[in-house]
């Protein structure tokens, strides 16, 4: 079990109905877990979308996932960003915290430390916007729990390789 690692896999696919269902079906049909999933069109002229999947597994399982993804007809490219060199990963979160008095002051102080922006404010609550690594967002959310955490909405991981080459 010690060689189970988290991997971020980028998949370039045709932007057409049913493609996401086919990719997700590959994971669910084989019992693989998806920890994070993001999808967006990246090239409207060529009708291409990028699917970023975060999953965990042994090296053998990850290789199976990549090989099976590569065999799907609408897939143009599969890249394991975890293994292919340096990459940049970010996630966006909206975090709602309710509180008054000292708890309100403390939540603002922590937001400043974590570089979270206040994007909505009432006399009894804040909505913070924050980007960063999954670990950074997790840490901020954990600190907000005792201060009045109400709700969290997260985008999932987006990632891109560093350097001049595409996917």
Largest sheet geometry: 5 strands, antiparallel
Uncertain segments are: none
The overall pLDDT, averaged over residues, is 94
Order of helices and strands: EHEEHEEHEEHEE
Helix content: 25-40%
N- and C-termini, Cα separation: 30 Å
Radius of gyration: 19 Å
Summed up, the helix count is 4
Approximate shape: elongated
Overall SS class: alpha+beta
How many beta-strand segments?
9
* Strand fraction: 35-45%
Blueprint (SSEs and pairs):
Layout: E1 5-14, H1 19-29, E2 36-43, E3 48-57, H2 59-71, E4 75-80, E5 87-98, H3 101-114, E6 117-121, E7 125-132, H4 134-148, E8 149-154, E9 158-161
In summary, what is this structure?
The protein is α+β, with helices and mostly antiparallel strands. The protein has 4 helices and 9 strands; from the N terminus they run βαββαββαββαββ. The strands form 2 sheets. Strands 5, 6, 7, 8 and 9 form a 5-stranded antiparallel sheet that branches. It has a 4-stranded antiparallel sheet with strand order 2-3-1-4, covered by helices on one side.
